[in-house]
Amino acid sequence: MRRRRRRAALLGLVSLGATIAGVALVRAGDAPTPPAEGHTAYGLGAGGRIAPPAYPVEGPGRFAAADGRSPVRGVDGPLRRYRVAVEEGTGQDVDAFAATVDEVLGDPRSWIGSGELRVQRVPEAAAADFTVYLATPATSERMCALGGLVTERYTSCRLPGQVIINLARWLDGVPHYRAGLETYRTYVVNHEVGHEFGEEHQACPGAAEPAPVMQQQTYGLDGCVANAWPYVDGIRYEGEPTEGL
Length: 245
Hints:
- It holds the Pfam family DUF3152.
- InterPro entries: DUF3152 (IPR022603).
- The chain is of the alpha/beta class.
- It has one domain (19-201): Collagenase (Catalytic Domain) (3-Layer(aba) Sandwich), CATH 3.40.390.
- The protein contains four helices and twelve strands.
- A hairpin with a 2-residue loop joins strand 11 (231-232) and strand 12 (235-236).
- The longest helix has 16 residues, at 181-196.
- The radius of gyration is 18 Å and the shape is globular.
- 43% of the residues are buried.
- The model is unreliable at 1-23 and 26-46 (pLDDT under 50).
């Protein structure tokens, strides 16, 4: 296993307002808009008939933000505050999504494992350095496109102050991953938040080795084994830098 220590680059704080890149945020508990009818990502249902996905492909572009705050996690370093929001009409509970994000980012195998970074979820837009969004494929594509990123409604992305998780990937994962949906969800949170913390893409270090968390594992493992964490056995695990979005 190829390991080396490196100080994670930290970006400056980015304060988010109640409206970010034209995407409206509302408080959790507001009446949700009914789901929009999906029109892509259909699969085969009973008898070989085409069945719609179990989630909306398009939504209203309005988000409910989680209330409350998490404990401060991490032992030292700058405190990065984040907010969590779920697009209305997705059928996903914002508190459950927030709890998963909190669990991932608060794990010592995540970015706080450096000992030089702390994180905390907050409810106030003005206090947050970045927001983690769960968005339908169409909405996530529109949001990512504002930063010049092409996702084809398939991948998640990160823009300054915005970590945008594609609902389809959150619910379905990717076919080749073979490590379970929970592991994929952990990976995608750590990967996109890693970009927010200044991390770049990395390559698979070798066949049957763990994939670096900054490898684009959604597109393929390139012979590596799925890995969702930046720290393995307490040591920063990395591959060589590579190009890509």
